[in-house]
Amino acid sequence: MSVAVFGSVVADTRLVTEAPARLHTSNPATSRAAAGGVARNVAIALARLGLPVRLSSRVGEDAEGRALLEGLRAAGVDTDGIGRSATQPTARYWAVLEPSGELVIGLADMAVLEEHGPAEVAPVAARRADAWFLDCNLPATTLALLLDHPARPALVAADTVSAAKAMRLADHLARLDLLFTNAAEAAALVGPGAPAELARRLVAKGVGAVVLGQGAAGLALADHNGVHALDAHTVPVVDVTGAGDALAAAVLAARLAGLDLAAAGRIGRLASALAVASDEAVPKDFGIPALRDLALRLDSEAHVQLARL
Q1: For labeling, which of 73, 157, 173, 257 is most exposed (least CB within 10 Å)?
Q2: Does residue 149 surpass a pLDDT of 90?
Q3: Closest to 44 (Cα-Cα) out of 58, 54, 33
Q4: Can you give the chain as a three-state secondary structure string?
Q5: Could you tell me whether strands 219-223 and 209-213 are parallel, antiparallel, or unpaired per DSSP bridges?
Q6: What is the pLDDT of residue 103?
């Protein structure tokens, strides 16, 4: 089963405050550069789960872009669909984290991705894949083209990314087989409400299945069979960056393997737990063996289901 991934490849900077963050004043912090981007993280996680992956994105003609491409190739991701911009730098994201690892604020400079239009995604879209994953850092016109593309596979998943960018999907919800979102992003699409109700409304709008992340409060899952809640696993939190991307990759892989939404959600929950316990967006040991080891401790049912991946 192969996956084509469309979206962001980003040079991340993570700043961790030494004490709980205070707004409107200086906060002592430590900083660290890392590789990131929703599409980049999902692509690498899928590759480490054993799936062939192609990535369509855009980076700048700079050192950050070169390093990101090298990292993707080393992880086994096909990067032929990643273009180089002569006018914009590689996308950057700054995450300010509490000492607990929880996100205080994220700042994104994604201008380079506005150049990743319909013509740029066409070569990857034209090649056969069993599933697509799209992130909403792509321009609205690009998302629209992909969601209506004649060569789209049977399973098309998307991530809303932010409340503002979620609106790029507003007119295309019925074209989504699987949607990854959170309460704020879902509310931008269907109005305010409790997480389970938001997930239900998205399905009523035509989304095939919804995985709504609530951080430490767990997941709300919804499809035509109804709404199902999963509590989050309790693990030490090192850094929440990338947890949603690990979740998305694992759920997508499980769905491709034929698992129902609830079972896929259980595996995704394990993947998210692996990510938050690491200081990397995609831990180096991410993969089926690590998920099985964690399932032995936290979820025996998911351990059985992992045999199908």
Answers
A1: 73
A2: yes
A3: 54
A4: CCEEEECCCEEEEEEEECCCCCCCCCCCEEEEEEEECHHHHHHHHHHHCCCCEEEEEEEECCHHHHHHHHHHHHCCCEEEEEEEECCCCCEEEEEEECCCCCEEEEEEECHHHHHCCHHHHHHHHCCCCCEEEEECCCCHHHHHHHHCCCCCCCEEEEECCCHHHHHHHCCCHHHCCEEEEEHHHHHHHHCCCCHHHHHHHHHHCCCCEEEEECHHHCEEEEECCEEEEECCCCCCCCCCCCHHHHHHHHHHHHHHCCCCHHHHHHHHHHHHHHHHCCCCCCCCCCCHHHHHHHHHHHCHHHHHHHHHC
A5: antiparallel
A6: 86
111 contacts: CB under 8 Å, gap ≥ 6: 88, 91
